[in-house]
Amino acid sequence: MPVFVYLAGPLFSFAERDFNTRLALALGEAGYEVLLPQERCKDLGDRLRDIYYQCVADLEKSDVAVAVFDGPDVDSGTAFEVGYACAQKKPVIGLRTDARGCQGDGPNAMLRFSVRYIDGRDMGFTDMVSAVLKEIGRLLTEGAGQYAG
């Protein structure tokens, strides 16, 4: 039975979308079925209501979520996806690769302490993927409700 990973993150620049795609491919190569909104919703165009319902359905289908916390503040859509996943008792991994300051030394407390947080700012891509895969394995073994790190 496949394990579904929902990958949340900002997707407003080519660089953001490219990073999301690279991370999704690496997780897929490790055997996970990745639900990537930027791919799963691209045929929906500007139909925002349909995009919302597709993302919610994918979150509900997922076994674990990975959220990219990059930017000067965490993307509002990503913050919603994290909150929704937590409300559904889904384990979530928060990943920050952005060296810019973000409310001190990371995302705000509500996001930072509701997820397993990986500070990937000093990691190369391969090491960061390894850290994410390791956390996915831990979370799936421990079960929901044990996310905070």
Automatic annotation (TrEMBL):
Q: Name one GO biological process term.
A: deoxyribonucleoside monophosphate catabolic process
> Which Gene Ontology molecular function entries are recorded, alphabetically?
5-hydroxymethyl-dUMP N-hydrolase activity
InterPro entries reported in the protein's UniProt record: 2'-dNMP_N-hydrolase (IPR051239), Nucleoside_deoxyribTrfase (IPR007710)
Q: Cross-referenced SUPFAM superfamilies, in alphabetical order?
A: N-(deoxy)ribosyltransferase-like (SSF52309)
- Short name of one Pfam family for this protein? Nuc_deoxyrib_tr
Which PANTHER family does the entry link to? 2'-DEOXYNUCLEOSIDE 5'-PHOSPHATE N-HYDROLASE 1
Q: What is this protein called?
A: Nucleoside 2-deoxyribosyltransferase
